């Protein structure tokens, strides 16, 4: 149990600092902003208490907000995906039974399931974030292109990160 908490803490620190120090400075022509820190919320155990899930989601986004000078936008987006995550997992697991102690990962559940899971949640996160950041009906197409391109870039970073971040939560 303590070992699992330490692994999740290490993952939090690596993803948050990676986002703050490296990825926040990456922007391709103003349309592509990869957000890897979302992986922390995606990786939390499936059966985690919803209150704790929401609290960890909030602090994940709040940390980015503090260092990015964005007043609550990332926290709001993370709380939204933290809230919707159990429903998305349930919707994607119509035929399969998931171990509530496991953490959703590419290695654990395979490419097809994981890309659906991560894709839906990343798309929801980015849609909320970019609409709250610069909602303007005159820029609707630009916002939609930014959501799509940033979601694709974030998913690529999330998939690649899973090969380089060897964090496995082992439950007994």
Can you offer a commentary on this structure?
The radius of gyration is 16 Å and the shape is globular. The protein is mainly α and 172 residues long. The protein has seven helices and no strands. The mean pLDDT is 88. Helix content is 69%, strand content 0%. Helix 3 (50-68) runs antiparallel to helix 4 (73-92) and helix 6 (111-134) crosses helix 7. It starts with a helix and ends in an 8-residue tail after the last helix.
Q: Report the portion of residues in β strands.
A: under 5%
**Mean of residue pLDDT values:** 88
Rg to the nearest angstrom? 16 Å
Oligomer: single chain
Low-confidence stretches: none
Would you tell me the structural class of the helices and strands? mainly alpha
Number of helices, where a helix is a run of at least 4 consecutive DSSP H or I residues: 7
List how many beta strands DSSP finds. 0
Q: Percent of residues in helical segments?
A: 55-70%
Biggest sheet descriptor: none
Produce a short descriptive summary.
This protein is mainly α and about 170 residues long. It has helices spanning about 1-20, 40-45, 50-70, 75-90, 105-110, 110-135, 140-165. Helix 3 (about 50-70) packs antiparallel against helix 4, helix 4 runs antiparallel to helix 6 (about 110-135) and helix 6 (about 110-135) packs across helix 7.
Provide the fold topology.
Layout: H1 2-21, H2 38-43, H3 50-68, H4 73-92, H5 106-109, H6 111-134, H7 140-164
Helix pairs in contact: 1-3, 3-4, 4-6, 6-7
